[in-house]
Structure of Fe2OG dioxygenase domain-containing protein:
Amino acid sequence: MLDYMTGMYKQPGAAPACERRYIFVYGNWTHPCKGEFGNEQGGASTRTCHEQACMNHSSCSFLPETPGTSCQSSETSEGPSGDDGRRKRTTGENLFKDEKQASVWLLCLSVPYNRTRGICTPVMETESHQVVFGKSIIVPSVRELVKEPITKVPPRYVHNQQDLQMAAAAAAAADIWLQSVPVIDLHCLLHGDSMGSELERLHSACKDWGFFQVVNHGVSSSLLEEFKGEVQDFFELPLEEKKKLWQQPDNHEGFGQLFVVSEEQRLDWSDMFYLTTLPFNLRKSDIFQKLPQKLRETLEAYSVEMKKLAMTILSQMTKALKMKAEEIRDMFSDGVQSMRMNYYPPCPEPDMTIGFAPHSDADALTILFQLNDTEGLQIRKEGRWVPVKPLPNAFVVNIGDIMEIVSNGIYQSIEHRAMVNSAKKRLSVATFFSSNLDSELGPAPSLISPQNPAIFQRVPIEKYFKDFFARRLDGKSYLKFMKIDEDGGHTS
Ligand SMILES: O=C(O)CCC(=O)C(=O)O
Ligand SMILES: [Fe+2]
């Protein structure tokens, strides 16, 4: 049985001996505790860090500098243990035939496991760090609301008309903009002759747009299809089932809406499900245990893929910004990952409301997976709302506030929102990637100089998030709060 707090398989009576193993697929690696570094091309490899030998065990990890996105090599590597408890050698090809399984295995190997039983037996009491980042007033489900034939949007969902009128203008101008949101080819960025030019394109996309679509990302389409189906089924569960996973008054994880801080506040035309997925010790076990089994397993695999992808993109951004590689590693190696699944039901008066009010994301990097081809996402560019048309097999990636702060404003988080329509529902999953919970947030030292002084203050990341979730979501107002004014204090 998989323990969803630690990512390990529970096996009663397992012996306590343990070691920590790491696995990476392609690329450069470093081992901060042992001062080792190396390079692997092709196949999956594991390295072992023996707990006793490692003084820095809690923070020790092999850090893939250029994690790969493909696992098709047939190079030899180690695989999960056989039934006899001894480790079997297998080929990379076999190991990753079932990518979902492989990803779960990757996760398991990134935590201590019991040497005598092979893979993922419980050897470590993970101290569950029960951080509650925020709470939100409990609100009804919009999906349930539209089950009754309604012709008008209830007053609590009617949004500011001036803002909404801009949506119509954006729709009219859509064709001009459709081609404009940059598309980054991850394969070209990591391999081959066009790496340099693709890196420049990435840099411009982050500076000028704060948004881009990423293609050739290497995440298996079968995993994405499976995840898509399971998320759709999840929102179709009967209300009685969903209630078991509804937000609680003291914690915003679960079904509901985020950032609802007053009974008067206008609500968005959507239902969402929010949960923290990484690191393991931040997971809310009661939520994980109640997820449908298949979704839970696919979510594990998806979460690993998203972490790999986020780390790859972040390390490329570091390169483009000419930051020191270790700065990003120190901040994100054990980064906080959370997911927000969004369900926007059809709306009888789409011009009166909004699926997700304008906001910038508080994280470093968001990877958005649009589950169907219904349009709805718009980004604010030069004062206009620009629709983002989902490309097949692409993720939409955007810079969040943390990256704007770390880059000292070179990259900018961009306001975006989700619109609804009268005919079709829309679903998306946003994966948010933020820095390690014990890190301090502020501009990267390598980007600061007397000529380029820090424009943002430094705060512990835990405080940053708690303050963020305590506020009503309002465009980029939270980032303004983090800015240093000319006298060296807060700007607001
Ligand atoms: O559903 C969308 O397109 C946008 C979702 C979003 O912005 C978010 O979850 O932060
Ligand atoms: Fe967002």
Residues 114 and 466 are 36 Å apart (CA to CA). The chain is about 30% helix and 25% strand.
